[in-house]
Amino acid sequence: MLVKYIRRSVGRAKVTHAVVVIFLEFFAWGLLTTPMLTVLHETFPQHTFLMNGLIQGVKGLLSFMSAPLIGALSDVCGRKSFLLLTVFFTCAPIPLMRISPWWFFALMSVSGLFSVTFSVIFAYVADITEEHERSTAYGLVSATFAASLVTSPAIGAFLSGKYGDSLVVLLATIIAVLDILFVLLVVPESLPDKMRLSSWGLPISWEQADPFASLRKVGKDSTVLLICVTVFLSYLPEAGQYSSFFLYLGQVINFSSEAIAGFIAMVGLLSIGAQTLLLSILMKKIGNKSTVLLGLGFQLFQLAWYGFGSEPWMMWAAGAVAAMSSITFPAVSALVSRCTDHDQQGAVQGMITGIRGLCNGLGPALFGFIFFLFNVELKEMSPVDPNPVSTDTEEKSVIPGPPFLFGACTVLLALLVAIFIPAQHTPVVKTCSTRVMTEPVSDGLGNSSVPVSDEDNEPLLQDSSL
Fold it and tell me: What pTM was computed for the model?
């Protein structure tokens, strides 16, 4: 099933290689933010939000199911071949957007089996960095991800408005092909030959490939259980929000393509600032647990504002609050590192990542279903005569975004659960907040190292354009 990768690498493996791969992949998808809204509406005019949720939900669940197996195989066979595999299948649907929208969405759903580039990239970085360098390297990868999503939607919206969606899809396809060629011809293998060769005879155990293996360990420690429940209740609505919010802005709140691109850029930039400057200050001043509670408070306020907001200025203001809420998961990850023993760090961080992966599948489907239950349909949001006022319109004016209000309720539960997480008054050690835990060869999630801030340190806009 695997194709032997070509060893035409330039020099040694570097973090720069990982940065370029991530930037090109998410830049290509970010360009498609505006065309995606149009194609979704044209392909599924009856139940657009529901179908969008189902597509993203299937993709997320498939990614959750396949990530451990792909990670375990990459530990044995090397990173480059699986990096090529994940980038190719993640970008494969792009050219089909204008050729056949139905095949585009079908392939996009199935591509979730291989849409785990971040997992392989983090493992790649772990192979080539020392432990004390790793947090900086992961931060660079996450910042690159943010930069790609801050710039590409605005560029895509401009080109789409001036030259049409077809040119944007063509440009995204070219960038995706360049990414594949870069991995094939330039990216060196990061996993040492002797480490891989010594692993060839070892079978891949079911526990390594079982996505639920880490989740079954959650209940063994009450503190870890409280943290995991908090993560599930807070990330479930966030994952759902990623999948539908820009569609919601464009069709319900009547944002233009340029306004959506500007909104993405604003939230992305503010999120980067919040996760760097604000987070470090809060961690020093009020501690891990209080920072988690503050982040959940921001998220609760943001989702409630999205749920009741009906004017564009409300969305802009709530977006600023949303950026502040991005401090939650880095703080949660640091809290986990303080609450668990050093030899259990990788397993516990794996549980957190596994729960977030599960939410990536459940959240979009849940949001789409709630939109469907409340009859929020795009065909009803197209321009109509302002004179007739129906009962449906009156209901929408009260709660324009029901899923966001539901999300606020789940975050409120997360906040209540987080209050009971015991605060760990450990001595202040500089390495504690930046420590990266590793499990060398057989991490169940496919990262040879599970960083304190791998997915948790990603900006708010994660997966927003996928």
Answer: 0.65
